[in-house]
Amino acid sequence: MQIMTTDAEANGVAGADPPGRWEHFDHGADIGIRGIGPTKAAAFVQAARAMTAVVTDLKTVRAIEPVEARCEAPDDVLLLIDFLNVLVYEMAARSMLFAQFELDFEDGRLSATAWGEVVDRRRHRPVVEVKGATLTTGAVEFRDGHWIAQCVVDV
Amino acid sequence: MDITRLTHLDDYEWVIERSGAMRVNGIIYADEPLIRAMDDKVFEQVVNVATLPGIVTGSFGMPDAHWGYGFPIGGVAAFDPDEGGIVSAGGVGFDISCGVRLLTTGIDSHAIKSIQKELADSLFADIPAGVGSKGTITLDHDEMDAMLAGGARWAVDRGWGEPRDLDRTEEHGTMAGAVPDHVSERAKHRQRREMGTLGSGNHYLEVQEVMEVFDIETARAFGLNLGDAVVSIHCGSRGLGHQIGTEFLREMAVGAETYGIKLPDRELACAPINSELGQRYLGAMRAGINCALANRQIITDLTRAVFARQLPQARLEVLFDVSHNTCKVEEHEVGGRARRLFVHRKGATRAFGPGHRDLPETLKHVGQPVIIGGSMGTASYVLVGTEESERLAFSSACHGAGRAMSRHQAKKRWRGRALVDELAERGILVRGASDRGVAEEAPGAYKDVTAVVDTADQAGLARKVATLAPLVCIKG
Which residue in B41, B108, B343, B382 sits closest to B222, CA to CA? Predict the structure, then answer.
């Protein structure tokens, strides 16, 4: 299957939103997420936002409670997958959704703070839970003047 | 899929001839329209699986095969530990032991139709479904380990069900060889409040009507009569299985090279069966199977409680419980001798034929019930395992319709509310936590399950017994 970007789904930068943008792309049974930004960190942040948008409308999630995430991996793609899977775990274990992220890289290590809130089923109307971020179509690369961080999430 | 790359063996069997690094042929069971509609990724993934060490006979694709993670969904492959065979976390998938349990009710569907709305509302209220829903059960550390070791038997021992339910569950309710210590604390923590919950995505609980019977004798042996009401429960090992899959997939993807395994795709993450990592994964994965069996057992009990209030004349009995994301040790005859193989079924159902030693006595003369779920507006099917299926694909069959359209496309095409109203007009009551979730699961987003099932039947993988039409659908 050809991977297609879907601009209609893309969420442009507005107000205090972080630099860059996110989009979803098609995968047979699941959903592709892609973060695009001026830096690798911005692309990771946008990929995390794209993952939340699989579950709910990002605009409904308030950035109230911080959760720390740390991971280390031998390459950028695994680091992205690890980062997203830490968020998947925290979403499930704390029953939370995350909307804002701060992220730093140092020597193959990532440290991040994710801000979000506990799921409110009435307000968030969550669509589907993310089981895990996968290596399928996984990529972290500098392309056409932007950093791209992408993978398929299993739902 | 470009069929010029395949050898057409007969009407329903297509062969990808061994070449390059492939150790065995690829074999896909499908009629021509289904195989033409299959993604080229299925071809690529069937080929990739065929390169894995210790694979025996072939890399198989079922009629519902579609693009998965490493293995195609609808993929079957068996590995011999004595020939360097591997076990693959990617070959089992994230939702370990996701499966379907079918309950007979002993009542006619007319009785359901008279209180259909009340029944739908009660089931939706009492069976936790969707993101953010938690069960009423909280497991402490000791109970978590007991559940992971005991599966459905643990649930029955705690009062969620009847001992006779176990006889109609694969592995008689308990997957042997589970090692709770091999399951991480994070996986256990993720599961602490998730027992007895459906989850989301394509998981559901449906009340259905036996709409058509193809094989009266087998249907009778299964306790199915035309017009009967039945209940299907489709769910898996919840957060625990997802976390086990996530952790081992990563460890195997990074570690494969240390075992001298060259992966054509990192999602094929695997380790030799006879390795510390392989054995550790098997212990954890089997605990994940027990989690799924216990989960479906608890949901069975919750369903019985709703029926006891609303339809006290109903008597809910487990017809059978099948899993479709597993790796199991089975004995199969290959090259004239019995061999102990590790059979991966990724989105595929085990389908033992009549006389198989692992079937309960009450089913041994007919064969294993094979339960195939449709989508919420379409039919599901009950099939029965055949003797031939052993030779065709290690006694395996399809598991469902498979998606024809991505979630993304589906939500653009349909509106959840309108879809619920349209289905209600057709007599199908849908209760879901999210309108967008319902839209993403629109019946039109799935392939024609009837074509998939007809092909499985005609190829000899399993034989059609009955069609089930939905009346009530509880979506996660």
Answer: B382
Q: Which residue of B has its CA nearest to A88?
A: B243
Chain center to CA of B264: 26
Tell me what pLDDT residue B47 has. 98
What residues in chain A have their Cβ under 8 A from chain B's Cβ atoms? 1, 6, 8-9, 24-31, 55, 74, 78, 81-82, 85, 88-89, 92-93, 95, 119-121, 124-129, 131-136, 138, 152, 154-155
Candidates B307, B130, B306, B103; CA nearest to B208 is B103
* Predicted local distance difference test score (pLDDT) of residue A16: 58
Tell me, what's the pLDDT at B398?
95
Q: Which residues contact B458 (CB under 8 A, 6 or more apart)?
A: B11, B12, B31
Sign (positive/negative) of CA torsion B411, B413, B417, B419? negative
Domains delineated in chain B: 3-404+446-475 (3.90.1860.10)
Q: Cβ atoms within 10 A of the Cβ of B32, count? A: 12
- Contact between B446 and B378 (Cβ < 8 Å): yes
pLDDT digits (tens, 9 = 90+) for A126-146: 989 999 999 999 999 999 999
**CA nearest B190 in A: which residue?**
A93
- β-sheet bridge partners, residue B75: B61, B346
The answer to whether the Cβ–Cβ distance between B249 and A9 falls below 8 Å is no
Name the DSSP class of B60. E
Residue B292, token pair as written in the block:
């799924």
Helix axes B116-126, B276-310, angle to 10 degrees: 140
Task: Give the ipTM of the model, two decimals please.
Answer: 0.89
Q: Which two tokens stand for residue B285?
A: 């994965």
Digitized pLDDT (tens) for each residue of chain A, 155 residues in all: 333 333 334 443 334 578 999 999 988 778 999 999 999 999 999 999 999 999 999 999 999 999 999 999 999 999 999 999 999 999 999 999 999 999 999 888 999 999 999 999 889 999 899 999 999 999 999 999 999 999 999 99
> Within 13 Å, how many C-alpha atoms sit on residue B130's CB side?
23
Does B407 sit within 8 Å of A30, measured CB to CB? yes
- pTM across the whole model: 0.94
pLDDT at residue A13, as a whole number: 36
**Residues whose CB falls within 8 Å of the CB of residue B242, separated by 6 or more in sequence, listed in order:** A88, A92, A131, A132, A154, B94, B95, B190
Question: What is the three-state SS of B128-196?
Answer: CCCCCCCCCCCCCHHHHHHHHHHCHHHHHHCCCCCHHHHHCEHHHHCCCCCCHHHCCHHHHHHHCCCCC
Q: How many residues does chain A have?
A: 155
Catalytic-residue membership of B399:
yes
Q: How far apart are CA B54 and CA B48, in angstroms?
A: 13
Query: Residue A10 carries which side chain, given as an amino acid letter?
Result: A
- The dihedral over CA atoms of B256, B258, B264, B270, expressed in degrees to the nearest 10, equals -20
Of residues B94, B132, B433, nearest to A131 (C-beta)? B94
Backbone angles phi, psi at B183, to 5 degrees: -95, 130
Give the residue ranges of DSSP H helices in A56-120.
76-94
> What parts of chain B have a pLDDT lower than 50?
none
The confidence score (pLDDT) of residue A15 equals 40
Going from the N-terminus, what domains does chain A have, and what CATH number goes with each? 7-154 (3.55.10.10)
